Amino acid sequence: MATAGKINTPDAEARCNKRTQSENMSEQTQEINPRPSSNAADDGEPEAVTNLQELLGAAGAVAQFKEASPEKVADLSQIIFYPSSKPVVAEEKLGSGGRVRFLEEEGIYVPTLPSVRWNMRSKMERRLVTDAIRKKKWFQEDGELKSCEEELLENPVRPNLDEENSNIATIFRDCSNDVERFIPSSETMILLELQLNSLHFTQHPLFTAEHTLAQRLTETFYCYQKKLAARSFERMSKRLTALRHAHELLKNKSGEGVEEKLQRYELEIKDLRTTTLLQGAAERSVLAAVLAVWEELKDLRERQGFVGCPTKLTVSQEVVSEGRRKKEERLWKDAVKQVVKEMRREQKPQEEEEKENSDWVQLAGKLLKESLKPPGEPEMIIDLSQDLETSIDSKSLKAQNRLQNHLHRQKVCLKILYNGSEVCQSMPYVLDSQTFSADMSIMLPLSAVHWPQNFSLQILQHSTIKKALIAEVSLPLPEKGCTREEVPVQKVFFGNETHSGYVLCKTGWGKDADGNLRQPSGRYWETAVSCVAKKVPKTPEELQMWIDRSRIDPNNPANSEIISKAKNHALGDLNSDPLASDLDFCTEGEFKEGDARLKILELREKGHPAFCNMKMVPINARELPEGLLKEFRDRHWQQSSQVNFIEEEADDSLANHRTWALNSIREIKEKIQRQGRLSSRKKTMRELVTEDLVPDIGTLGLTLMAWFQPSRPLRPMRKPRPQVAIQGSTAHSSTLIVNVVSALQVPTRKDLDLEPSNANSFFEGSPTNAAAFNTVAVRPFVEVSFKGASARTRAAEGANPTWNCELQIPIQEEVFDHDVINIRLFDEIVVDVLNDERLRDIDVHTRHEKAWLGAINIPFSAVQRTAKIDGTFPLNAQQLLLGYEQEEQSRQFGPLLGPLESPRGSANCTFLNFFITLQPPMVLAEPETTERLECMESSSVERHLEDWSSQVTALFPDRKVPALVATANGKTACLTRFFRPIKPPEVKDTHSRTLAEVTSRFVSLIPRTQSNVCLTAEEIMKLCYGDQMSNAILLTCFLQTFDLDAWLLIGWGVTRGASYFALTRDKQSPNEMAIWDVFTGLKSKLDDPFCPATLVWAVANKDNIWANVQKESAPRRMRFDFSRLSDWSPAFVPAGAVAAPGSETVLQPESIQFTKTPSESCKELVSRLESILKENFMTWRTNLRTRWNRHCCSVLRKVLSTLENQINCKKEAMRELQPLIAAHKMIGFPLHMSYADDKEVIRSLYSTQLHSLRDAEAEFGIAVAAFPYANNAVSLWVFVAALSQRR
What we know:
- By secondary structure, this protein is of the alpha+beta class.
- Helices cover 34% and strands 20% of the residues.
- It contains 34 helices and 35 strands.
- Helix 32 packs antiparallel against helix 33.
- The protein is extended and about 135 Å long.
- The N terminus is likely disordered.
């Protein structure tokens, strides 16, 4: 055959003649059938038979094969396949439609493949061609087999030459060149100056656990600093932005090759985006590693009880301004949209179904959160220093002395070697027990007659018996013309298996007395010895500098290993093998994910709370409990998908914002509980060591006297048994008893029917007194409800009724702190329903209705803590009750009694006298105190505050003073850190209110929940949610900006339980003090008998915390002079050993960027609430028709605007309602509240029981109004009324 000679050529020659071979083979060579059919035996001896003979001959059975018949050979050929050694045509390898490319002719680099015999390669190709499905995966575009490069790569060696001396000539010299080592006689001796500053160990056998963690912290911190200095993520992000911009520009163009360029751009964008996100995730993970090591170091120091090394990490957060936050949010949304767009574009068409838009957004957000800083997240700034003061107590001194004794026995010394010969040896140095370093300050001038070949330093361990070599390191030789003063201090690293560290030193050429530089001559610098003397690149920065200076070609295959090493160095993998990835069949993460047992072992090693106490792990994964790892993954996914509330944004809907805020607070509470459980496992010295007093003569005498006392078994000594706290009470465990005594100033009914002769007159009366009222008797009764059960009194008569009725409600469900006792006052209306007077004696002719007059809520926890509540309390009645009006006090009590003077306007309030108790008494479960959180304060301040609180509690057990409060980050802080004057939001129209009153009303509009977490003002405004303590602190900070001295008041309210208020003193009138209620926003004087703060326990501001140590705790009976130590016990004494945290450590921001609540959100809220309330109102009226008066609803909306904008607005509201009142009898009232959620509004409307009106001809009207304030705070009004036509 014409191609026989080419078939037998070597592999390299066959590759060069591949084009000609492919053409000739396609024309002259017949296609080889790898699996011949049985008909081939009839046409003579086929080719497959010959190949079979070769195979059997190689096995030693040729004789048997020759004796076999052709039919038997044909049958064997169907079973055994022996490929031919003839080459396969390139078109056959690529399949139909495949086009052969010649990569070398196209200028593409083709690597050198391992040497394989041509016949073996042909047989392998014959085998692979038979796989018609996957044969394209085995061959490249040029028809060659896909294979790895030659593993024995030659390492390129290129001397690091200076650019100015790059063109040097090769000089051949004799073998004996000893003379060249000496300086010529015509030149003076060189002067080499060495300065050794200090020696530092980063690894030492005597390292304690604290030193090891401190060193780990230092290394991780510097790794993070290097990543920030490299700015790789920033450069990649800019490059990705430019690539996206180029892609968008190319999409607007048309022409040949545009589609291919777009596809190439899309692939590059995908790869670069992945690399950029990985780089960002690496930076954030290193930062997290730094903080984790620092937390571990602090925990270790707390456990051991002292500080042994001065390493300290300072962590600070840069508060993000509102403008910057909005910009970050906008950029974040744009980035998510861009990633979603690219991911959708990269989606493969063969995927089953396309994901929803929300799924894409969630996936893109998850990818970006791992690599980018979410919007609103504070910028974390960390700084490492070595100025932490070490402990000086007895325990730390004992440990340091023991370590110092070991270091005295293992001193270190240095030995200087010049050209392999010792020239100097230092004295032994003792390492510092805290830093494991030695300050030397050695200055060594070295005059030499030999040119420097090598310059090294040996570090020896000097003991009393012998000297042991720790490490030997080469010192850097100075550059040409550099003196010691001009060279910066360099770190020379050394290390072995047991020791590692670095030496701070610098070298330079010295000068003689005339000021001439004594350095080697030009002949020394012209040699290539300087290249050997230079330091080999060890760090990524040095390697990159070497590559830039050498200007090597990254596209040259000979430099592929260097470029690969440089990339690996940049990623932190200094010892990676570029060929190792070719042999990996799976990653380490995939390997661990596939085995549940290995995953559990890894989590246990990392100290995860769910697995750290798991002692016995089964050896087989099938023996693990089912669902153990699945529950952990589900819980971990939920925690990772929920971001910190400061980082996440809620949408514009007020209802969704409230839901998001509640979820955020719930996450904070769960986080604090988890950290509390973890912190409770870490015992302090005071918990582990029990200190007993040393017995003295007095105690010994009492002990001896106890032996001689007579035994009295009939009169044993009894010890009081502590009460057992009950978290929840079971059915029939207790009964709530409410004794309703009387009421004062109950509103009376007014019949406003107009006379026919005086239609223009609003009131009915006699001609002599037009303002006289026709008073209708009021029949009030009280209804008490708790946990779905209710009871009521009988109906009394008059505006000042007396019942003396005892109501009992059995508690049949579990009770908790948030449960309340609802006490409501109603008017029983008797309606005559008889139409025929003749049937009055034989038929029922009355119907009883009830109208809501007011209510008061008592926390169940207040009843549990005090065992009883007794007194007269004002009801939360509204100032406008349609159909009712409060009589003047002169008409009720006569002219001898004047009006009740009260700053809270008690003359217009209704008062209810009642008594509440539990039978038998129940003990409220105290909050768990065993879970200790990590404290932000120093150990001395924390211990001092705990001791001070214990002293106050010992004197007054009922007065709870929280000196340390939990913060949102899961740590405790001193209460004084939360006070700073903060400017409140601006209000243009105060409507005859003072700025302080407007501010107090704004704080009362912020919803509250029980969280036991003290939030900062910025966090409260972000969430528009808080608890009572946080809102009281916020109000105190706002009031401090006015002409007032403000404190946080901690005390007790009968209707509130343990409560927090704001206490103010007018700077102009120091005797005028007031208490501000964060629930209602009202101000009360100290002598107000109905002040919401019944007892005062403590006050606090930014300077101190004062506990009330007076016998009296009622505000009107106390002295508020905080300088009197007999009345107030301060937590921090001015001249005491422990000082209060400074103003620089205040957690509150200096100012808050308030945002305007969108009016569209309020309109949406009003529309939704009106429809929800109407729907529920109709549902409550079972079997009754509900008719809505639209005109009444529109009038009520106008009235609500009047009620919001003015204080005394009853006359204006009645003027608006006059047309309706003229034609209808009306019963109704407005309800005012802060908007928390829809359920709270529905519950408030249901408690009025207006839906129970059974008049078939009655019409109803409901109006809702929402008035926006700053940061999504809303003043919500609901006006509900019932109308009936006048006859």
